[in-house]
Design a protein that fits this description.
- Keywords: Auxin signaling pathway, Membrane, Transmembrane, Transmembrane helix, Transport.
- InterPro entries: Auxin_eff_plant, Auxin_Efflux_Carrier, Mem_transp_PIN-like, Na+/solute_symporter_sf.
- It is a multi-pass membrane protein.
- May act as a component of the auxin efflux carrier.
- This protein is 80% helix and 0% strand.
- The protein has one domain: Na+/H+ antiporter like domain (Na+/H+ antiporter like fold, Up-down Bundle).
- It is mainly α and 350 residues long.
- It is globular, with a radius of gyration of 21 Å.
Length: 350
């Protein structure tokens, strides 16, 4: 049973995040140290240097030969359900659109497995809980962040090409009234090529894969990473969560209001994070036959607060960063009582 000492350990892991957040907010709002260009540069540094090295560093430390593949299958099924639901909503409803589909996927799929998840799951279920949540984060780094980046790049490429096509059409609108339908539609082949090139240049695309390859080799032949290489990675990777929260504080300070999104959107974000995510994982877990504590851990880890990195990507691509920042800050604050409630209910029902 989780005790007050365990809750304190979780809070001790969370408190430094808000220290970085306050420093970022104060450096703009009170001390006027940075302008918008500086903030964008810091966020880009986090996105393309610190986060990939953090991902690589973390992945190299796991043992891929001792992973729970049934849990991983349950996670894949849950995300497939989410993607299918988002696809149907975006294409067959009046309010559905691609931009919000990306944000909904981020809110329902990416959680803070390491900072909050590891100490909390260890307190609740011991080494089993810690191992499962680490495996969840590996799958998140390797698959779901890649899916998110593909969606972001597709949105960016389509928007850019559509803008260029509109400009060309407006410049030549006197010459033809009947524009060929093909000229109005952005070529999927061109978009796919642009997306592929952008992802190839993005170190987040292969950071986890390289880390997993090293983990497979090192655990198979009992190798250790050279100290020079390890130190070179550590010097940047250790700043991962801190710089991400600092960027969030900078972003908040640049807005007219601290919370720049409506209460309705915040409620929707909390529903996606704390209800939809664990429900879909529960469905996937029942499909693959998870039982006992593994089932409990699978459901609870899906209800962990929003991943900090999701804000960094949203800010970099300019898509609903205000909502993601609110989801991270508010969701992390309310997550502890919600997760304890899940823990109690699951122990009673399952």
């Amino acid at each position: 049973m989780i005790g007050w000492e365990d809750i304190y350990k979780v809070l001790a892991a969370m408190f430094p995040l808000y220290t970085a957040l306050i420093l970022g907010y104060g450096s703009v709002k009170w001390w006027h140290m940075f302008n918008s260009d500086h903030c964008d540069a810091i966020n880009r540094l986090s996105c393309y240097f610190i986060m990939p090295l953090f991902t690589f560093d973390f992945t190299t430390r796991i043992n891929p030969y001792k992973m729970n593949y049934r849990f991983l299958a349950a996670d894949v099924i849950s995300k497939a359900i989410i993607l299918l639901a988002i696809l149907l909503w975006a294409n067959f409803t009046k309010k559905g659109n691609y931009a919000w589909s990306i944000t909904c996927f981020s809110l329902s799929s990416l959680n803070n497995a390491l900072v909050v998840g590891v100490p909390l799951m260890e307190a609740m279920y011991g080494p089993l809980g810690e191992n499962i949540v680490i495996q969840s984060s590996i799958l998140q780094f390797m698959l779901w962040i890649m899916v998110l980046l593909m969606m972001f790049e597709f949105q960016s490429a389509k928007r850019s090409l559509d803008s260029g096509a509109s400009s060309l059409e407006s410049a030549t609108n006197c010459e033809s009234t009947n524009v060929d339908d093909k000229s109005k539609q952005t070529s999927l082949l061109v978009i796919a090529k642009i997306v592929g090139l952008k992802l190839a240049k993005n170190p987040n695309s292969y950071a986890c894969s390289l880390g997993l390859i090293w983990a497979l080799i090192s655990n198979r032949w009992n190798l250790e990473m050279p100290i020079i290489m390890e130190g070179s990675v550590h010097i940047m990777s250790r700043a991962g969560a801190g710089i991400s929260m600092l960027c969030m504080g900078l972003f908040m300070a640049m807005q007219d209001r601290m919370i720049e999104c409506s209460a309705k959107l915040v409620v929707v974000a909390m529903i996606l994070r704390f209800i939809v995510a664990p429900v879909t994982v529960a469905i996937g877990s029942f499909v693959v036959g998870l039982r006992g504590d593994v089932l409990h851990v699978a459901i609870i880890q899906a209800a962990l607060p929003q991943a900090i990195g999701s804000f960094v990507f949203a800010k970099e691509y300019g898509l609903h960063a205000n909502l993601l920042s609110t989801a991270v800050i508010f969701g992390t604050l309310v997550s502890i009582p919600l997760l304890i409630a899940y823990y109690v209910v699951l122990n009673i029902l399952l």
